[in-house]
Design brief:
Shape: globular
Order of helices and strands: HHEHEHHEHEHEHEEHHHEEHEEH
Structural class: alpha/beta
Strand content: 15-25%
CATH topology of the largest domain: Aspartate Aminotransferase, domain 2
Number of strands: 11
Strand order of the largest sheet: 1-7-6-5-4-2-3
CATH superfamily of the largest domain: Type I PLP-dependent aspartate aminotransferase-like (Major domain)
Distance between the termini: 23 Å
CATH architecture of the largest domain: 3-Layer(aba) Sandwich
Oligomer: single chain
Number of domains: 2
Number of helices: 13
Largest sheet: 7 strands, mixed
CATH class of the largest domain: Alpha Beta
Length: about 350
């Protein structure tokens, strides 16, 4: 059992809240404010998203990433539609069937080795249009950064968007770790979302220093028609929405998002460098954000997990995922590497 509150490599969800985010929540806690998003903080947050993603952006705040993905997609889909996504995507593996339950649609997976999908792989699911016996493809969904820690370039996203639009489909982006992608690419958010053809964006902050709450950003006008009713039926309309919105004010102020994501990315790169010292360990994916995927001996992994917990990824081949966070420190990496040296000495 690891020490109480000890930083590990299990998930960026395990990290605490950045002090500036906490201060922003506290500042919103003075006096009364109108409920259900009619408050000053929510208005300011919406304006920030317009400045970041484009003036036509329409933003709605929800409690969780699952809600951001599923409710955002439900605005553009019917139960007879299908979502095309990577076999590793949360919509396929980690939403507990939420798209099927709340939208009633099919999820069609594209096999991938690195978390990324391309038109050539998407194409096999793009058929059966106007044929009433076949689910109708409606949306392609990509994850940025992917669940494998890799990052789509802006041209890659544009290629997918152009292909999807040519077939009458929309492009959705699960941006749970979008800040990590922006840091890796060295680009503003708009460059690889709105400008690259993304139609619906789930913009996450919880994995990068926020407490809770995600944003659904509709980047194409008209897609959010009636969405306020969908959000209410989906049980995601916060009465005290100011506490979600206030976090985003701090998140974007002085580019706190970049500071947090830069640290987690650089710590992952450092971790990868240290792991390369051991011939007994194989890094299986490009380290482009804050995830490091490795193959190591199961017995060694279990002993390491007792000190710095991390999750298995593919138990059949003894592959593990190590995640760094906004608050990961160099000392954590060096101590982890020191333990490994003892294992292999």
């Amino acid at each position: 059992m690891t020490e109480k509150n000890k930083r590990g490599f299990a998930s960026d969800n395990n990290a605490g809240i950045h002090p500036e985010i906490l201060k922003s929540i506290a500042s919103a806690n003075n006096g009364h404010a109108l409920g259900y998003g009619a408050d000053y903080y929510t208005g300011q947050a919406r304006e920030i998203f317009e400045s970041q993603l484009g003036s036509q952006t329409e933003t709605y705040f929800v409690f969780t990433g699952t809600a951001a993905n599923v409710l955002g997609l439900s605005a553009a889909m019917r139960s007879f539609n299908s979502i095309i996504t990577a076999s590793t995507a949360h919509l396929e593996t980690d939403e507990c069937g939420a798209p099927e339950k709340f939208i009633g649609c099919k999820v069609l997976a594209v096999e991938t080795n690195d978390g990324k999908i391309y038109p050539a792989g998407i194409e096999k699911h793009v058929h059966g249009f106007d044929f009433e016996h076949h689910s109708q493809p409606g949306v392609v969904s990509i994850t940025q950064s992917t669940e494998m820690g890799t990052v789509y370039t802006a041209p890659e996203i544009k290629e997918i968007a152009d292909y999807a639009h040519s077939k009458g489909l929309l492009l959705h982006m699960d941006g749970a770790r979008i800040a990590n992608a922006a840091v890796h690419l060295g680009l503003p958010f708009k460059a690889f979302t709105t400008d690259s053809g993304v139609d619906i964006l789930s913009f996450g902050g919880t994995k990068n220093g926020m407490m809770s709450g995600e944003a659904i950003c509709f980047l194409r006008p008209g897609l959010s028609n009636n969405f306020k009713y969908i959000r209410k039926q989906g049980m995601q309309l916060a009465s005290k929405m100011r506490y979600i919105s206030a976090q985003y004010l701090a998140y974007f102020r002085n580019e706190l998002w970049k500071e947090c994501a830069s640290n987690s990315n650089s710590m992952a790169a450092l971790l990868a460098d240290r792991l390369k010292e051991f011939k007994q360990i194989t890094i299986t994916q490009k380290v482009q954000s804050n995830g490091v995927f490795v193959i190591m001996d199961e017995k060694v992994a279990k002993r390491m997990q007792s000190q710095y917990f991390f999750y298995p990824w593919d138990e059949k081949r003894s592959e593990y995922r190590l995640m760094t966070s906004w608050d990961t420190e160099k000392e954590d990496i060096e101590n982890f590497a020191a333990l490994l040296r003892k294992e292999f000495s």
